[in-house]
Amino acid sequence: MTVMSARNPRTGELDYEFVVSSRADIAAEAARLRAAQPAWEALGPEDRAQVLLRFADAVEAAAPQLAEALAIDTGRHAIAAIEVDGLARSLRRWAERGPALIAGLDREAKPSASPGFEIRADYTAFPLFGAIAPWNFPIVLSHIDAVPALMAGCAALVKPSEVTPRFVEPMLEVLAQVPELPLAYVMGGADVGQALIEEVDYICFTGSTATGKKVAEAAARQLIPANLELGGKDPMIVTANADPEWAARIALRSSIVATGQACQSIERIFVAREIAEPFLAALADAAKAVAITFPDPRKGHIGPFIFPSQGQKVQEQIDDALARGARVLSGGRVENLDGGVYLRPTVMADVSSDMAVMQEETFGPVLPVTVFDDLEQAVVQANNTDYGLSAAVLAGSTAEAAKIGMQLEAGAISLQDGALTSMVSDATNHSRKASGLGPSRMGDEGLLRFLRRRAIIIQTGEALPIDAYREGQNS
């Protein structure tokens, strides 16, 4: 038996242990779920929805225990409670939307383009869905794909991050109240993720682009679909017609919520020169007013880095920018406080496109600001990235913002606000470049991707005799 330890991001101590799932454990769990899946799919969407609603009730009843475990793992109390509530809301959303969506699928027979035939469609779920989740939003991202997969009729096997595993223990008590739900967890690191891929029929991965490529390669070897939600380097364009103080408030929130440890965080800001001075002043003042949640974890705005090495990476990006001529207007120095690693919101001016903070994913509360004179060039700079997850535009009007947003190479564009994909779950979008692969997890496609279409081809006339293929009959 192998045991792993998890670190408390507030104390730096390894104060939690869990048993790593062996390959035999993973295979046995996968076999159990596969055996349960036909009956689960046969329930039909209405009855599956009722089970998801019971699961939502059980999650809400256990919310204090789930949130407390999550708060220890992430160092965040308010967001931990929001995550638990988000899971319950996701279950209710799909329970409400799923039956009508599945019932509305086209199953009517239609004439084929080939004379004498009719065709209709049938739909079946992938038997066993698998997910490999990251550490930044442990409960939400462990279930964001699993819930619609379950609604579609799949069984689901999830590997939460080994960095933030504590919620699984109270969640197993919740699952015991809905024994017919074919959902299970396997625990461990990269080798457990690899073994999971070898057992499932569809894999969803949320995490870094580098690891996502490895997941895609492993899925290709298994000839299974891989749905990847990867990194981002989201830009925000602020035009000359935007109110600078309004824009600064939105930019700050969009960049630093959850300590910037979110794929949809704004990581590059481009502001028109006409309002650059008041914008930067307002942004720096607002950033300085933000409090870290130390020493009281229940007071303040942003908590510690969940993964301590992330703090070191962010500091390296800041130092690189300073060495190349950038200026820090607020924050700028990672702090180790009683074992926790913190960074106060860091506003940077005089940044250039060659700096690491403008090219590499930061995943921290850093706001590098570039001043532009030409809007077309600002769009070019915003698109000058390997990523294409999401983006934002703040302008004098929605019409002005939309005209600019349509030029940005990203899967979701927030207009007159930022990072809206964290608030809006029904906007179907497809990532660009190195930010992802596969169907959207948002909108109706979030469920429909888990249903395979089967073609039913009906002969409506006389079947051809073998003589129709006799050689020489037309010579």
Your description of this structure?
By secondary structure, the protein is α/β, with parallel strands linked by helices. Helices cover 39% and strands 21% of the residues. The protein has 16 helices and 22 strands. The chain has helices spanning 23-42, 45-61, 63-74, 78-103, 138-143, 146-152, 168-175, 190-197, 209-222, 244-256, 273-288, 308-323, 356-359, 375-382, 398-405, 445-448, and strands at residues 3-7, 14-19, 110-111, 117-125, 128-132, 155-159, 183-185, 202-206, 226-229, 234-238, 266-272, 327-330, 335-337, 340-342, 346-349, 366-372, 387-388, 390-394, 412-415, 432-433, 436-437, 451-459. The strands form six sheets. It has a seven-stranded mixed beta sheet with strand order 12-15-16-11-10-18-19, with helices on both faces. Strands 7-6-5-8-9-21 form a six-stranded mixed beta sheet, sandwiched between helices. Strands 3-4-22 form a three-stranded antiparallel beta sheet, with no helix packed on it. Strand 3 (110-111) and strand 4 form a beta hairpin. Helix 2 packs antiparallel against helix 4, helix 2 packs antiparallel against helix 6 and helix 4 (78-103) runs parallel beside helix 6 (146-152). The radius of gyration is 25 Å and the shape is globular. The mean pLDDT is 97.
